[in-house]
Amino acid sequence: MEPILALALVITGVAAGLASGMLGVGGCFIMVPVQLWALTSSGVEPTLAIRISFGTALAVALPTAVNAALGHHRRGAVVLRAALLLGIAGFVGAFVGGAVAAKAPGELLRIGFGLVVIAAALRMATAPDIKAAEGAKGGKAPRSNSFYLLLGLPLGFVSGLVGIGGGLIMVPILSMALGFGIHRAVGTSSAAIILTSSGGVLSYVYNGLAVPGLPPYSLGYVNLLQAALLAGASIPMARVGVRAAHRLPADRLRAAFTLVMVYIGLEMTGAFELLRSLV
């Protein structure tokens, strides 16, 4: 791998780690575009590059989420029951989603999910401030285990389908629809991503075994070299993100998360690429 590509991946890992710790997302939305550029620049076929980017991003999101979740847990910001149930169902959903992604057109999936992300960002931006209890009790948060399991399945499926840890959708649902405070929504999401990402990684490895054209150091659709460069930077930076998240007021954290979601949605729909072509 060329030094400039390796350096870009390390810098991307720093940004992904900060996003994971601060916002409760896996950081995949930052890693996937850079990985696509690195892989296609190295001569990997674009469709294959998309699947490798998704699988590798999930592989990096897993240890990064572990680090972030531990930091949030020490601050009492992880609702363990919700995280475990969401994660178990998300594991199954992500495995199925990864299997579908191995056969589906990546561009179509990216555009569809980008539209969903933009819609979620608009909802987050226009929602009234939530003063619900900081936890899974009080507010609108349900007590039913089956509810969390049913919610985790589609969240996990989307996660596996587009190579994102799941926090992108999980945080706004927990904070707005279920009445979690924003800090506990972020912490609980980080913990659930551990299991959700695991299901996606296993699926991308399994469905990518013996596929021709994979770059060196690949295990199925997971590239171990890129994963090492990204994870080496993202794992320690996740703790920095956790500290920053707990020092920021909830309204600022919510605003930051909304801006990130808008960026993700525009990137995934190809809006920035369209603008570049018009300039």
UniProtKB/TrEMBL annotation:
Localization recorded for this chain is: Cell membrane; Membrane
Return the protein name. Probable membrane transporter protein
List the membrane topology term(s): Multi-pass membrane protein
**Which protein family is it in?**
Belongs to the 4-toluene sulfonate uptake permease (TSUP) (TC 2.A.102) family.
Organism encoding this protein:
Candidatus Methanocrinis alkalitolerans
Please give the start and end residues of each transmembrane region.
Answer: 48-70, 82-102, 108-126, 147-173, 185-206, 218-235, 255-275
Q: Cross-referenced InterPro entries, in alphabetical order?
A: TM_pro_TauE-like
Alphabetical keyword list: Cell membrane, Membrane, Transmembrane, Transmembrane helix
